[in-house]
Amino acid sequence: MTTDGLGGSYEVIVLGGGAAGLSGALMLARSRRTVLVIDAGAPRNAPAEGVHGLLARDGMAPAELLARGRAEVRGYGGHVVTGEVTAVARDASGFTVTLAGGSTVRALRLLVATGLVDGLPDVPGLRARWGRDVLHCPYCHGWEVRDQAVGVLASGPMSVHQALLFRQLSADVTYFAHTTPPPAGEQARQLAARGIDVVRGEVTALEIVDDRLAGVRLGDGTVVGRQALVVAPTMIARLGILAALGLHPTEHPSGLGDYLPTDATGRTEAPGVWAAGNVTDLSAQVGTAAAAGATAAAHLNADLVAHETSRAVAAHHSPFSPRSEARLCALVAGDQFRHNHGLRTMKLLR
Q1: CA-CA to 51 of 20 to 30 Å: which in 42, 211, 285, 346?
Q2: Which of 202, 199, 232, 252 has the alpha carbon at shortest distance from 121?
Q3: Is residue 261 in a domain?
Q4: What's the whole-model pTM score?
């Protein structure tokens, strides 16, 4: 379903159709909410062959997982469209979302699940291998490179930690200092104790043979044979469209990138806006992101229920509500009856 002919209002619009967004939309649709998911169609894990560590779905292709999720949301009456959101604005009763091409839709609440993008080291050939034999997460892809020759490119504050994690999966791990000073002190002792070699010198290229990583080339021409290369990307939250709501990326305490802070329920600082998934949790895997989407959706639905109940209570006790009007009419009729009955009684007594 594209954005052709899209229009109208929804109780909730979900920005982003990954694991967090679709899981949240499923929860909302099952709660009989009118919900729209707008997805730009650029999932972060698209280059990966499979989703790993997800119970009962381990190894499933990312595209298949999302296709099943979209079908489930639609099965409960939710709408899922492919489109790019260009602006989000608050109005008197909620939010107006503008899509590329100029069409607009409205919502009472928003669930932000726009995810993040990975800023990769500037090494020729590296991005083309991303998600294949250039990796970052031992839990997502570590099993697939077990017992292989693994290199760790120093590209972030967690690079030594990455090397130690991948050492659990392979006895052949090499740490490339690249453009950073070689580890010193306790970190140097940790690497040495685990048998992880440290190679000085800038990595200038990857060696590819038969569409497979074969090694890492240094600035002096030396090639160190490796079958997999681990990097620490800079994680950048997709939040540009939310600036008008006062929501801006915040530097993550880990130094790994930026994110959108929320409370434990997924509620952001902007009234009526929740967030879930990698946009607010940089380390979330697919299962974690899906769970966060469901949690945020449940609290968002509860917020709508509280709002609706408050309005119902006010209407119920309003002197102009239909129920109050009926009660008033009954009281008036009763007073009139008592008045007429009193007059008749007085006449009889005379």
Answers
A1: 211
A2: 232
A3: yes
A4: 0.87
Q: Examine the domain organization and report whether 64 and 210 are in the same domain.
A: no
* Domain with 282 in it: 9-118+234-309
What distance in Å separates the CA atoms of residue 37 and residue 43, rounded to the nearest whole number?
A: 14
The verdict on residue 174 lying in a domain is yes
Pick the closest to residue 37 from 74, 7, 79, 8 (CA basis).
79
Task: Give the CATH number of the domain where residue 138 resides.
Answer: 3.50.50.60
Q: Is residue 52 part of a domain?
A: yes
Nearest residue to 173 via CA among 186, 185, 161, 164: 164
